[in-house]
Amino acid sequence: MNLHTNTPYGTGDASFQAAGGEAGIRRLVDAFFDRMGSNARFATIHAMHPEQTDVSRDKLARFLCGWLGGPKLYNEKYGAIGIPRVHAHLAIATAERDQWLSCMAESVEQQPFAADFKEYLMAELFVPAEAVRRRCANARDIVE
Fold this sequence. Notes:
Layout lengths: L13 H5 L2 H18 L4 H4 L7 H14 L5 H6 L4 H5 L6 H16 L5 H29 L1
């Protein structure tokens, strides 16, 4: 529950506020991309991104703002998004999904978020991460 608003996470903009609004989400995204680009454990997922990550950072931050109940910034700039669909061209299996989640978990851990929000956020992020893995597996099955 967002202690500032006494609203359960996932309700209205409680999660967006718990993440520190757009500024907090952008700090999280920067920590994620910085970690991914500087730690060899995340080399596989890092290689799936363009060398210049400015647009990727912007897209993830804007997506997370809306996904967490804040303003729909991704849609305003880039249009509608289907997270699994836009990743279907990538070779994302369980190892890549878990690498992404580990990088994100480490990035979330360093944020000044409430402990219960960190747990909530990582549990929620598993859902789209797994959807991407399943979509990519299905795409590979269709190609083969």
